[in-house]
Structure formats: C-alpha cells, structure tokens
C-alpha cells in the first residue's frame, strides 16, 4: 500500500547544470581552437565535446525522458500544491502531445485517484497510520464515472506496457510505468474499497515490475519505491495476514525497505516526493518520530502551500507527544487558510479534527468539543468525517455534563442514510452518557 507523488525540480536541475556545463566547455573549446590548428588537436577537442554531451545526457538514462519535460514538471508543481484541476489540465496536454506514452497516462491516473481521495477526506494519514484502519466499517461512495476512468487508465497503461515489453524485454521504462500504475490502483482499492487481498497482489505485481526495471538498470531510483514499500509492508504483516492475502513466501525487511525509499526519495524523478511521504508514514507507524518529523518538515517547507504536508507535520508532532507544538501548527494552518489564495481548496475539516483530537489529548475538553463541531460544520466535509466529529463532540459535551448538546450530536452521528460507521457507538451513548475511557 502506498501513496504516490513527486514534485522535485531534480530533473530540471540536472538539465540546467548539464547545459551550463556544456556551455562552459564549449567556451573553452572555442578559445582553444584559436591556438591550435593541427588535425589531431581538433579530433581531441571533438572528443571532449562528445564526452561532455554524453555526461549531459547521463541523468536521462535512468528515467523516461518525458519526466524532465517542462510541462510535466509544471504539472507536478500544481499537483503538490493541491491544484488538482490545474495539474490535470497540464497532464492531459502532455498526453495529447504523447498519445502513446504510458507515463503520460500514469500522471493523469495519479491526479484522478488523488483528487478523489482528497474529496473523500482520505488523505489525512491519521486514518491509516494505525492498524484500526484495517477494521474500519467505512463505505466510500466514488462516482461511477470517476471509478471507470481509473479502471480505463490503469488498463490502458498495462496494455501499452505489455506490448512494449513483448517487443523489447529490456524496456526498463515500460516495466516501471506498468508497476507504477498497478501501485496507484492498489492504493486506490485499499483506501476506498478495503480490498486488501486484491491490493496486496497488485502491490506485489508492482514490486515485480520495479525489480525487473532495477535488474536492467540498477540506478533506476524511481523503481525502488515500490520495492521499498513492499519490503517494509510485508515485514510488518503477521504470517497469518500474509496467508489471508495470498502473499506467503514473499520476502520483507523493514530496514532494507526504508533504505530503498530513502534512495528513491533522494534520486527519483517520479517518486521523489511520494517516497518521502511514505517514509514519513512508515516511520510514524514504528514510532520513529524524530526522523519522520524531519522528513515531513522538509516537505512542509518545500511546499508551504500544500496544507496536507503542514497537517501531517502537526499530526506527527502530536503523535510524538508534543501536544502544544501540534496545536500551534494546526492553528497556523487555519490562520494561513484565511489568506486569499494561500491554499487551493483547503479542506479544513481535517485540520479542525486534528486540532480537536490534540486538545482532547491535552484534556482541554471545552476547546475540543467546539473544534469537533467546527470540523463537522465545514461545507466540504465528507459524511464519514462529519459523523466522526459529531460523535467525538458529543463525548466531549458528555464529559462537561452538557447532556442536551451531547444527545443532539449523537442523534446526528447515528442518523440513517450516508455513512453508518459511527452509528452503533452513537446509539450506545444515546442510552448511556459517555464517561471517558
């Protein structure tokens, strides 16, 4: 399982550095030609130029050339500032210019999936950072047209790459791009459908494709993400769970997985940011908070207008035991959201909910109650998160002995229609006030 994303200017920086280097070398060559006239000297200098050009093209050898095109890098910048519509517009233009490119379709698939996860309030990693995610009863209603587009794009990438691999078994880009699509699809059905068996098998297939790319080119850093995710995830699963999802015999090693993710984060073109995000999540899962916080703070600084990275830094600060520090970050995010244009489509219910959870942990039940209510009243709040916030607000009001307010919120949380994951607990507290745990 994993989330995928990248917005590093690494590729662009390589190209710029290469061009400057070539320019400087050409100047040297031009000056040298003024002083040498022999045929041998000219041949030597031409060899130097060839050497420089080969060096300049070097970084391109470890990724699909499409990944360093300006329109792609611009699309990724919009993606990581949560401007999904702007990113989609750019990637659709890229796909139009490269209709046979599987990678171009992968970028569109990335945006379509993560835009939907965002709209469903599924990109707050607090939801799946802990094992309780596995037993969640939540049902996610994805529009049929969106689901169909995800399936069609996935199938198109796989079909295109199948043909390329059949024609050339050493097409490392095709292996990576097919595995990338499978990894994206695996993440989608994990978070949306809780299809753990199917997702685990797709994740394993993504790992196989990435390993094939690495066998052809050991420096293909992007391919290390899927392998790293699988290494860590499989090592974290009990043997019984491995048997249940059908991946018995698959090897896993947490530290090897983390090292591969670090390499992908440092050198990947496509998986730079996504690898850092997954690294932070895995380190958080294992309570390795200092490293996770350092990783997440770096993302928040690099992308200050992506409020999800800021939200995750607050979540990690809370989990690390620094409640006041987390509260300060949540409140700063809320303050920045009031600045016109600072965030694109900030879904502040997740910030209010995280703030309320932290205040609850600090035994500030008065502010927690109000901020859970604030979360539930956000206009774009999903029904699932709204009812979670209503249930928790009711609990806080019960602890304040404000039973009338608590009952009103429990009734909202247990109402028929929509999400029912909180209904049983809410009905329980309608009968008997919540007294704390």
What are the main properties of this structure?
single chain, 437 residues, 20 helices, mainly alpha, disordered N terminus, elongated
**Beta-strand percentage?**
under 5%
Mean pLDDT: 83
* Count of separate DSSP helical elements: 20
Q: Quaternary status of these chains?
A: single chain
Please write the string of helix (H) and strand (E) elements.
HHHHHHHHHHHHHHHHHHHH
Which class do the helix and strand fractions yield?
mainly alpha
- Helical percentage: 55-70%
Largest sheet: none
Overall 3D geometry?
Answer: elongated
CA-atom Rg in angstroms: 25 Å
Alpha carbon gap, first and last residue: 32 Å
How many β strands by DSSP? 0
Unreliable residue runs: 1-60, 240-246
């Amino acid at each position: 399982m994993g989330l995928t994303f990248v917005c590093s200017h690494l590729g662009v920086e390589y190209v710029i550095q290469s061009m400057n280097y070539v320019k400087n070398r050409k100047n040297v060559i031009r000056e040298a030609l003024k002083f040498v006239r022999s045929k041998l000297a000219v041949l030597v200098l031409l060899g130097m130029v060839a050497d420089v050009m080969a060096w300049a093209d070097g970084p391109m050898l470890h990724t699909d050339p499409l990944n360093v095109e300006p329109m792609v890098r611009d699309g990724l910048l919009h993606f990581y500032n949560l401007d999904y519509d702007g990113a989609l517009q750019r990637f659709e233009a890229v796909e139009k210019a490269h209709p046979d490119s599987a990678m171009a379709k992968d970028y569109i698939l990335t945006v379509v999936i993560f835009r939907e996860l965002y709209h469903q309030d599924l990109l707050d990693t607090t939801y799946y950072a802990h094992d309780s995610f596995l037993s969640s009863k939540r049902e996610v209603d994805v529009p049929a047209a969106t689901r169909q587009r995800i399936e069609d794009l996935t199938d198109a990438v796989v079909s295109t790459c199948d043909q390329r691999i059949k024609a050339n078994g050493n097409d490392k880009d095709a292996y990576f791009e097919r595995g990338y699509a499978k990894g994206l699809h695996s993440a989608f059905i994990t978070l949306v459908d809780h299809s753990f068996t199917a997702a685990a098998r797709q994740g394993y297939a993504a790992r196989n494709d990435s390993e094939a790319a690495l066998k052809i080119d050991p420096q293909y850093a992007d391919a290390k993400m899927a392998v790293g995710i699988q290494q860590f995830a499989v090592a974290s699963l009990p043997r019984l769970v491995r048997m249940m999802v059908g991946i018995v015999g698959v090897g896993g090693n947490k530290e090897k997985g983390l090292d591969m993710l670090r390499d992908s984060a440092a050198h990947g073109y496509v998986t730079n940011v996504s690898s850092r995000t997954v690294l932070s999540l895995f380190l958080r899962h294992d309570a390795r908070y200092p490293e996770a916080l350092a990783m997440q703070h770096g993302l928040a600084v690099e992308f200050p207008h992506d409020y999800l990275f800021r939200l995750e830094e607050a979540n990690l600060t809370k989990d690390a035991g620094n409640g006041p520090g987390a509260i300060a970050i949540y409140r700063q995010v809320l303050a920045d959201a009031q600045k016109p244009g600072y965030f694109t489509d900030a879904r502040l219910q997740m910030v209010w909910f995280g703030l309320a959870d932290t205040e609850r942990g600090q035994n500030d039940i008065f502010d927690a109650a109000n901020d859970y209510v604030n979360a539930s009243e956000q206009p774009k709040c999903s029904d699932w998160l709204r009812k979670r916030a209503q249930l928790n607000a009711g609990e806080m009001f019960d602890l304040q002995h404000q039973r009338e307010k608590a009952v009103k919120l429990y009734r909202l949380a247990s109402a028929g229609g929509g999400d029912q994951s909180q209904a049983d607990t809410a009905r329980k507290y309608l009968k008997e006030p919540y007294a704390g745990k």
